[in-house]
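thread from #wetlab-drylab

HS: before we spend reagent money on co-crystallization trials with P-hydroxybenzoic acid, can we at least see a predicted complex? here's what I'd submit
DV: go for it
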Amino acid sequence: MNTTHTLPDTTTGYTHFNLGSFGFRRDEYFAHITWSTRSGQPMSHTMDVRAFLAALMRDVAWGFFYGGVNFDDVLGTVNHYQSVDLQAGAFNASFKKAGVDLLENFSTADIKQVFEEMLDDWTNTGFDPFAAPQETGLAYGKKQGHNRPAITRARELASRCVGLAGDLPLRTDERGAPVNRQFADVPQDVPELHPEPGFEQEVHAFNLFAFLSRSQVTWNPSFTSVVKYSYMCPTTEEHILPILHSNDRVEWFFQMSDSIDWNCTHKNTGEPLARVLMRAGDMAAMPAYCRHQGFSPKRSMLLVWENGSPKLVYEIANGETPEVPVQF
Ligand code: PHB
Ligand code: FE
């Protein structure tokens, strides 16, 4: 693998990272990304380090997600499910026109290793990249300790229904999952169950709103139900989605509470396509050619519905499946 770690920077304490032709360096406020353009010229890009780490956290935790994860209008990754592209400006019309973009492909294992090490080295004690800005300390300053517990959070995996005997217990205060400050009004009652005798271990239900009101993280879809390739991924959102997601399939949003405003642009160029203002009860579908970023002024509940079929991206590429949910 073409990665080399230079010694920690003597003034800030952070390690520099290289991956292929890309270099990554952080200082007290910024992440600096460098590369050589297609014609060999040195090029660089700067991001607020809080925004960079919040995006990096998602890319690492989601295993590079579906399609493209853009850290901003310039930097991003594209998941090919065996390998991953790292790119700067490759989906930005102005960068393309100027010929200053670069896209390189890496094995998933190699890019994962560098991204995990960078996240670990650049995340200070007290900063949680998964938390809403008002619920965590600052990302800024010189290197100070680490926050490994926050960046290596394991998903809680249920194999049947949450709360069913023998499966994942419900979230409670005692289990370290208090109701979030912004969901204090969410009723915590539980559904009434009347299973036929003999089916008490098989019939179950839980209060999804109560479950979500106790989520400690933001912008992190988790699966609540998996039926074949239909994945219901409810999540709690506050502030800005730390990535601009480029779809490689149609994706559905159901705004279950409060509101999120979305910016939708073309995934190949960044050309603005739509503003989608979602209020509680609204549903929207994001076509396979768009990239989107959401803004949630108050913590809200969003259900992301994904078609997880591993064949879908190839069916769309060869025209068997449309890029849009309906053709009028
Ligand atoms: C998305 O890119 O569609 C997405 C990602 C994370 C969320 C919500 C939506 O929490
Ligand atoms: Fe998305």
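DV: The pocket of P-hydroxybenzoic acid (ligand 1) is lined by residues 219-221, 235, 237, 241, 245, 251, 302, 304 (CB under 6 Å).
HS: ok that's useful, forwarding to the group
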